Amino acid sequence: MSDWWSSTQGWTITFPNLGIIIKQKYNTIPVAIMALPAAIITIFSVKLAKKIGFRTLIRLICILQFLALLLAPYSEKYQQFIFLYFLVFGIGYSFIAFPVVTCIWSHFKEKEGKVTGLLFGVFGLATFCFVILITYIVNPSNERATLAIDPLKPEIKYFSYDVASNAPLAAQVVGIIAGTLSLIGGFLINHAKTEVVQIKNDIEETNPLEIVANQVVSEDEIQQMQKSPTLRQAAFSEPFLNIVICQSFLMYFVITLAINFKFYSLSKINDDYFVTFVDLIALLVSSGTNVIWGVLIDRLPFKFVFLLSYFISGLGAILLPILSYDQFLFAAVYILLMIFDKGALVIIGPGLLKLYGNQMGHQLYPFTHCGVLFAVLGSSLSTVILNKYLTFDEIFVLQGCIVIFSLIFIIRLNMTYYQ
Fold first, then answer.
1. With a threshold of 0.70, does the pTM exceed it?
2. Which residues, in sequence order, are bridge partners of residue 21?
């Protein structure tokens, strides 16, 4: 539901209410500024949900997001738009993203990989529908991007005012649809009631032998609890740090490509409908394969699936600029990238459950957002600063090499660290 903004990245978006043109840098800088508070909130979001209630938190945020999506397109000032969309809506997403996943996992024990794949698949299908709708509203005549505003970068083309001025209408329509669906979902979702006797929520402050409700446990279970790491120990353990480093490297490329996809692809293939069609096929295919990734992570070793997804993603990042001279090769590599990039995201949560156990894995999962934080900052740097000295072709090849380099950390991953 949040992809309508990223879907309009290729247009020079003119908001008559604001009296400005929102160019590429205006899209990137607020995302970078929002990254740090979003990461901090995400890390503690599940703990907050446990304290005030999953339903309470999710419903409250969904109401605020609904209002933000309705009001943002009518902002009179750019600062108001930034506040409503990037802060209220964007930061709100950080509050509920992992609590929503936790709620879903609570209903499907031992099938976390499969349901995570289904969840990411639904996200992809939603984006698929919004891309079609946004493209139809903004550029119904398939007008080509012909305006080269920056003489130093003539390969970056912009659409005319007639096309760009349709963006506010697209934001209004999609905002109503996305906000309504989010509101409905927020009031329907709930966390399953568990009958399992739990240790106190804060593992760091609790003796693992302190059992609630006088529950009788076996000697083996006591020994296992004694061996269990605290949350602090697990968060700073070598396997977890390796996973976060790898995720930051991959997301550095993924976010850079997502932010600049329209600009980049239209500089190679100046056909908006074809580029949109390729993006739609990639979304549709990757949404379906997300389910397959979920099944694979439930049945195959995490390390093998992790290594495979990152190797193909890194190779694809390198090949994308090299094969971009042909539109069909470009499309094939991009679709392959989407399949394996999305798969790499799907497997992280279930992989942590395999490595650290159910309870600790749940608590560690939000901390992986630290990797996304570094990636957002890195991609923003690439878009605003690094692109002054390197072309996007060179940036993507460099990022692909970084992803390939991350394979070293995956190979070193010790899957028996706490077993």
1. no
2. 14
